Amino acid sequence: MIWYTVLVLAVGGERLAELAVARRNARWSLARGAVEHGRGHYPAMVVLHTGLLLGCLAEARYGHRPFLPALGLPALAVVVLAQGLRWWCISALGPRWNTKVLVVPGLPLVTAGPYRLRWLRHPNYAAVAAEGVALPLVHTAWLTAVVFTLLNAWLLAVRIRCENAALATAGTAT
CA–CA separation, 116 vs 12, rounded Å? Predict the structure, then answer.
């Protein structure tokens, strides 16, 4: 369980790094006239992602969930791949990436990196969804995986609709 706690804390540290990048990028965007959209769903997103990390640890410990290598090792591989995809997205979007929906009017859509893949319109959200299933399953926390996935599906429906509308009002097409 100690190594799983270290893994979950490392993912939490990665989230803090994302927030630092997002704050820096927000300053860049706002200096260029960015407009924020969807403030209402952002607190729910913070609570959900914090709950994922806490749920992983609580369920593994208090639910007495075992580590099953046949499930845990592939799930760990998915977690690592999801992190790689997320940082590829962050890199491709550069200063335009953010945890909030900030759109600088007049900027064209990014079509580099994973955003050039026509069959994967929202690669960052695919990474979030994959990680939300895989991280709990590394230590058989199936209840956390199910609850996060259901709530995240609802939240992503709201978020993607908001983001697409924001990009459309900025004069770009999604």
Answer: 29
Residue-wise pLDDT for 40-50, tens only, equals 999 999 999 99
CA nearest to 41, candidates 155, 160, 161, 164: 155
What pTM was estimated for this model as a whole?
0.90
Q: Going from the N-terminus, what domains does the chain have, and what CATH number goes with each? A: 2-169 (1.20.120.1630)
The pair of structure tokens assigned to 21 is 């990048």
Residue 172 token pair: 């770009």
Give me the torsion for CA of 58, 154, 68, 66, rounded to 10°.
20
Q: What six digits make up the tokens of 160?
A: 């993607």
Structural contact between residues 109 and 115, judged by C-beta atoms closer than 8 angstroms = yes
DSSP string, 115-145: GG-TT-S-HHHHHHHHHHHHHHHTTT-HHHH
Q: What is the pLDDT of residues 108-132, one digit of tens each?
A: 888 899 999 877 888 999 999 999 9
Per-chain mean pLDDT for the chain: 93
Reported as type and span, the H/E element at residue 50 is helix 42-62
* 169: confidence class by pLDDT, cuts 50, 70, 90: confident
Specify the DSSP element, H or E, that contains 109. none
